[in-house]
Amino acid sequence: xxSAVAAAPAVAGPSVPVTLPLESLETVLPVEAPALRAGxxxxxxxxxxxxxxxxxxxxxxxxxxxxxxxxxxxETLLExxxxxxxxxxxxGVARAASEATDLKLTSPGASVGAPVSEPRADLFGRPEAVLxxxxxxxxxxxxxxxxxxxxx
Length: 152
Description:
Elements (H helix, E strand, L loop, with lengths): L1 H6 L7 E6 L4 H4 L6 E7 L2 E2 L22 E6 L2 E8 L6 E9 L2 E6 L2 E4 L21 E4 L2 E3 L4 E5 L1
């Protein structure tokens, strides 16, 4: 059962909707408060790609494996009234909206080399001291966010 869960592809995660109360700005600024609705993505971890053994190395590559995460960046909506500069009232509402999009990210990882070499024939099977190698695997973030700005 555990291998079936590990082999299953990761599904985009849920998001938590958030509505920000900006009405208190009206007491400080002499403008109508904009309305802002957004969400917070909830990352869902996937199965990490485990260490891989490489010929000629004592320690496996990917000693600290990268962990993949998937999530959904929820839609965001910002509406702000636009006042008429020549008189009373509003001329419309400026609206900035972004669509929901899938996100894929991976955590950082590392590969560490051993401080000794493989056993060498010219040293009668003894390893030689070498400088240890360290490589850091960079985190990644993939997504296709897009937004529109409208005045209605």
